[in-house]
Amino acid sequence: MQIVSGAGAFTPSNDPAKTANYVEHLSVPDLSVGTYSIAAGGADGQGPHTEDEIYVVTAGRARLVTESGEADAVPGAVLFVPAGEVHRFVEISEDFAALVIFGPAEYSRAT
């Protein structure tokens, strides 16, 4: 067993030029877990990933826009994005944080 501390807590970037921040908390071959934070009014610059993702929103408000649709990203929302799908959080009206679960682990399928 391992307790994953700090997961899901909003963590601003140390770089004042960046409004988004990702902190990885755990990585094993079959999955990885981290927290993605975006400051209110910030921009999400991520690209599609080679692994499936689940976002569990823990704080703030945003909208997730994908190739296949859009959804409100509010505390308690659980959002799935399949590998390779272009997606982005927009309309970040409050400091936003989401627990991110990659399966398999992030970058494990990267070429």
UniProtKB/TrEMBL annotation:
One Pfam family matching this protein: Cupin_2
SUPFAM superfamilies hit by this protein: RmlC-like cupins
Domain Cupin type-2: 37-101
InterPro entries per UniProt: Cupin_2 (IPR013096), RmlC-like_jellyroll (IPR014710), RmlC_Cupin_sf (IPR011051)
Protein name: Cupin type-2 domain-containing protein
Organism: Virgisporangium aliadipatigenens
